[in-house]
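Query structure, 105 tokens:
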């Protein structure tokens, strides 16, 4: 689902043509770059001057990675549970059938 900025660009293009589309897109992207630079500087300066804040950020990042690992583990368990469930319903689809020639020899 497109956001408000995508809809704005599409409506400007529909009403004023392709040239307006390019201008609106360039202005929008330059605003995004300026906003990103301002936020980066506003976050980087306190982190550089305050070692405790930087350590807190590192700890938060490590906890986030552990959370992602937990989500990966839950997804892995769900996938393997569904595979076992499918195998229980259709055992012939999970294993090769035994040859009758090998049983007779």
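Result returned for the query:
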């Amino acid at each position: 689902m497109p956001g408000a900025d995508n809809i704005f660009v599409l409506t400007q293009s529909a009403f004023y043509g392709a040239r307006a589309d390019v201008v609106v897109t360039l202005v929008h992207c330059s605003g995004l770059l300026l906003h990103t630079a301002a936020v980066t500087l506003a976050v980087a300066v306190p982190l550089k001057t305050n070692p405790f804040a930087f350590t807190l950020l590192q700890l938060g990042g490590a906890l986030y990675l552990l959370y992602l690992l937990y989500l990966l583990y839950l997804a892995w368990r769900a996938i393997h549970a569904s595979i076992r469930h499918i195998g229980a319903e259709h055992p012939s689809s999970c294993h090769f059938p035994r040859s009758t020639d090998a049983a007779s020899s």
